Amino acid sequence: MQDVEKTVRDYEQRGVIKTYYTVIDWEKTGCEKVVAFIDVKVTPARDVGFDAVACRIARFAQVQSVWLVSGGSDLRVVVEAPNLRELATFVAEKLATIDGVTGTTSHFLLKRYKEDGALFFDSEQDQRLVVSP
Amino acid sequence: MSQSLSLKPLSKTALEVPFSGIRRFFDIAASMQDVVSLGVGEPDFVTPWSVREAAIYSLERGQTTYTSNYGLLELRKEISRYLNKRYKVEYNPEGEILVTVGVSEGLDLAMRVLLNPGDEVLIPEPCYVSYRPCVSLAGGVPIGVETRSDAKFAVTAEQLKAACTERTKAILLGYPSNPTGAILTREQIVEIITFARERGLYVISDEIYDRLTYEGIHTCVASVPGAREITILLNGFSKAHAMTGWRIAYACAPEHILKMMMKIHSYTMLCAPITGQIAAVEALKHAEREVEEMVAHYRQRRRLIVDGLNKLGLTCHMPLGAFYAFPSIESTGLTAEQFAERLLLEERVAVVPGTAFGAGGDRHIRCSYATSVEKLELALARMRTFVDKLHK
Known about the structure:
The structure holds 2 protein chains of 2 kinds.
Chain A: H1 2-14, H2 26-29, E1 34-42, H3 51-58, E2 63-68, E3 75-81, H4 84-95, E4 101-108, E5 114-115, E6 118-119
Antiparallel strand pairs in A: 1-3, 1-4, 2-3, 5-6
Chain B: H1 12-16, H2 22-30, E1 36-37, H3 49-60, H4 73-87, E2 97-100, H5 102-114, E3 120-125, H6 131-137, E4 141-146, H7 157-163, E5 168-173, H8 186-199, E6 202-206, E7 231-236, E8 249-252, H9 255-268, H10 274-286, H11 288-311, E9 324-325, H12 336-347, E10 349-350, E11 352-353, E12 365-368, H13 373-391
Parallel strand pairs in B: 1-10, 3-4, 3-5, 5-6, 6-7
Antiparallel strand pairs in B: 2-8, 7-8, 9-12, 11-12
């Protein structure tokens, strides 16, 4: 057990383990939240490519994740806000106005089925006989 | 029509074979609420989704027919590949592999093919509840060879030799063992095979728990030099792939033996259900990761339950395979039946008395750890209350 704890501590210090968090079904808590996946088109800057814009976006507290992706857009950003109005304001006033951002497409999250490995629907119940050979 | 009817009696064989000792506990436990069961002989996992999905898709496509008596060739090829890759044993998918309805059917076929009336089969005990009845139903005579906890319930060639007579026809091995969790080492198997060859005996090896081996890798009996030509190897998908309800397993043997098994199977079963066979193909092709994950869970629980039982004074050797702990309850002064019945009625924990598994099982109980860590902890806590009460 001590070996495991030591290894985990080492991973934490070296940043192999980035963070720990809980996957919460917010609907069950009654807590309203709005989540949007925003595809962002960016004009890459000399020397730093997409990094400067991506890091700038990543620093906003509303932004949960930022990934550089292949395909029709350049960055995929996950934004979380307490309501639709705040989310819209963030996209319109913060995200879209950053230098280098040439366009955004927002996809709103409607229902969760699985997140980070956790299913959001009831998994199978134990249906076995009480005693079996 | 109002005459009284005096039917002739049912078959003597059927009447004489006893009901399993597990039944009684099932009946009591099933009528109770809030029972924590350590009595379940099947995985607590559901079949991996990719396997279920493959079966559902096959139904959507209308794959609802019979298959070859031997089973789908694609499945037999996958089984052959799997055994070769894992154990370096070679079985020809065309003629040496038969897909059966559970290992239970494979066992029944093996006995019917090997035994003439009165032929004896040596069975290391404690063992799975079906072994004796399957021998009897095929007209044979089961000869229990008692194994002991101080030998970690592994049978030795010496013990088999001592039980061997002119009428002995075969040895039935079931390792990793339900109920003891015992395994045989390669050296032990070599000695048994050497002995079997000397006496011209067949070996039936039920290896359904092969993947649930926790220290080192399982030794397939057929992989030992000289074993293949005298061995009927039985295995299946129930335990490793959590597919008990699908009833898909396989038997591997030299062609002249397997052909006889297939002949009986073709008349009594025709073929294993096609949906399950398609699922099994997927299981062998793509479910290895899930198998390893499940094994990792069993390994973790094994430590938990064995430590817990030993702390209760129920001496328990560390099982090396399957998902059962088989502790001694000698320290309580109760018989296995009394212990199991009182534990169930007083503390609502279901275990199976060792007597259900034949000689050497008295003074032991079988505790399955195919259940969640939370439930195991709850069961151990309740058992603590029970044992403390006994010692007062």
